[in-house]
Design brief:
The protein has 177 residues and is mostly helical. 31% of the residues lie in helices and 7% in strands.
Length: 177
């Protein structure tokens, strides 16, 4: 079966409950600063620290709730018959390269290099292994279709990641972001 959990966070505004914010103190004393404009950084270091702390709290919250999902997988033994894919569509500059945001050129690694973690019961014996294959978000739909034995429409540019899971097979030499 398939369960898709779409989590909008971490995303602006960088707001998380206080229990996640407490580990990230700053010297900031101004109004709420949890949504920097997509532009060059003009803020002070204290303001940058505040935005980064709010973002870190939000990531900590997402991590805690992902942990609850993983605990449920353990409790319900979902690892036997459920695939789990954790990824995102882009990163975010938090002042790195003197920019805020995500839609900037050049596309820095902080924006383009996103996590992709896949668990599939068929490949459970390979858990914890890393792959170096170049992938794209567009590879997810063909992968899911492949897992269910369905053909991918010919106009789709993505490629199933099943060969990457099986043996680390390279599926492309280049990608466009």
């Amino acid at each position: 079966w398939v369960l898709e959990v779409e989590d909008f966070d971490p995303h602006e505004p960088f707001f998380a409950p206080q229990r996640f914010r407490e580990p990230y103190p700053t010297a900031y004393q101004g109004p709420t600063f949890d949504w920097p404009m997509y532009a060059r950084v003009t803020e002070s270091q204290v303001e940058i620290d505040e935005a980064r702390a709010n973002y870190s709290a939000l990531v900590a919250m997402c991590d805690a709730y992902l942990g609850k999902l993983l605990d449920t997988f353990d409790e319900q033994n979902l690892w036997e018959d459920t695939a789990l894919v954790v990824t995102t569509d882009h990163g975010f500059l938090r002042g790195e390269h003197d920019w805020w945001g995500k839609n900037l050129a050049p596309v820095y690694d902080e924006i383009a290099r996103v996590p992709l973690m896949i668990y599939h019961p068929k490949f459970a014996d390979r858990g914890g292994e890393r792959r170096s294959a170049l992938t794209q978000v567009t590879d997810l739909m063909p992968t899911f279709l492949d897992w269910f034995g369905l053909d991918c429409p010919p106009e789709v540019t993505g490629t199933s990641l099943t060969p990457v899971l099986e043996s680390g097979t390279k599926i492309r030499d280049t990608a466009i972001y």
